[in-house]
């Protein structure tokens, strides 16, 4: 059975690039435009992994990670932050919230797929 990955980013073009790479590797994808949208779409969905941006309107990625971790069904869902943020403090804030990996944009699809393969 193929795994489902949620892509959360306010950039439609970035979601598309990530989605194409993931689908090419055999994964199903669900897209969300920000943390609020992601939480709505997560409700009852069988999502195996989440890839999220940090800087987004309505609810940023780190706040979203904290909210996802409160959901019993997604408490252990691995989350990869895909972001332009490379500062150590942002990274440790993300890890403290529960993010399992940090991929900096611009990213290589292979690099992202390797991170996904490790966690899923």
UniProtKB/TrEMBL annotation:
The lineage of its organism: Bacteria, Pseudomonadati, Pseudomonadota, Gammaproteobacteria, Alteromonadales. It holds the Pfam family Response_reg. The modification 4-aspartylphosphate is found at residue 53. One of its GO terms (biological process) is phosphorelay signal transduction system. Keywords: Phosphoprotein. This is Response regulator receiver. Residues 4-120 form the Response regulatory domain.
